[in-house]
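Researcher: I'd like a candidate sequence for this fold, 237 residues long. If you have to choose between options at a position, lean toward the conservative one.
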């Protein structure tokens, strides 16, 4: 016989899948669920923990259990493609909001990432990507000015890579990527609609020209419930 909490978990999960409990809405309170299912709070908490573990809800302190939108966008891990090239294949077209596009003296932190000395100038571009009215990606790009002498907000709002390759004639060759999960910063909380999530997925890109020159460093910061990172791997024998 299945445990009571597992039966409750299955019933609530089924209701979420059917849309009885909709994404971005809260489940009934623990007290209400105790009444609905005629059981103790400990049993309800076990069911809710299982729902959270399986990606159905996000527990938010002081508010309750928020139903997560389980529709995710696939983002490739391998390959070097622009955001516009990825989203051209999606049914839903996101909106890009440019928050900053400035030419600045490189900070020690970014100088270390780009492997340059501090007097260098870099373009700092900060953009959020909006899906279904929610800001769920924060992209922070840094381009060395000696390779990208000019950049505007208008270019940043469309496709920077299209400009780099087709206007400036740069030959972008390859990138090294690092993927981590970290606690969200105050900037993340300010610019993204985190819906109570305390952690974000960060993809760091180190992008090189065809002569192996590192010219761009990017941090792409993602709300974890909205994306699925996919790759194709073949076994070599």
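Model: Candidate sequence:
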């Amino acid at each position: 016989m299945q445990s009571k909490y597992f039966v409750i978990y299955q019933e609530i999960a089924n209701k979420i899948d059917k849309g009885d409990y909709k994404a971005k809405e809260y489940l009934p309170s623990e007290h209400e669920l105790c009444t609905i299912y005629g059981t103790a709070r400990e049993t309800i908490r076990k069911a809710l923990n299982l729902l959270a573990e399986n990606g159905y809800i996000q527990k938010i302190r002081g508010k309750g259990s928020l139903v997560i939108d389980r529709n995710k966008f696939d983002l490739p891990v391998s390959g070097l493609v622009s955001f516009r090239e990825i989203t051209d294949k999606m049914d839903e077209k996101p909106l890009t909001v440019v928050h900053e596009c400035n030419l600045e003296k490189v900070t020690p932190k970014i100088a270390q990432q780009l492997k340059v000395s501090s007097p260098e100038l870099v373009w700092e571009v900060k953009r959020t990507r909006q899906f279904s009215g929610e800001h769920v990606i924060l992209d922070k790009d840094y381009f060395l000015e000696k390779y990208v002498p000019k950049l505007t907000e208008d270019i940043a709002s469309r496709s920077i890579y299209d400009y780099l390759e087709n206007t400036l004639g740069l030959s972008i060759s390859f990138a090294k990527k690092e993927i981590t999960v970290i606690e969200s910063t105050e900037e993340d909380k300010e610019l993204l609609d985190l819906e109570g999530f305390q952690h974000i997925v960060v993809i760091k890109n180190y992008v090189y020209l065809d002569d192996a020159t590192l010219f761009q460093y990017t941090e792409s910061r993602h709300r974890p419930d909205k994306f699925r990172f996919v790759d194709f791997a073949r076994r070599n024998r």
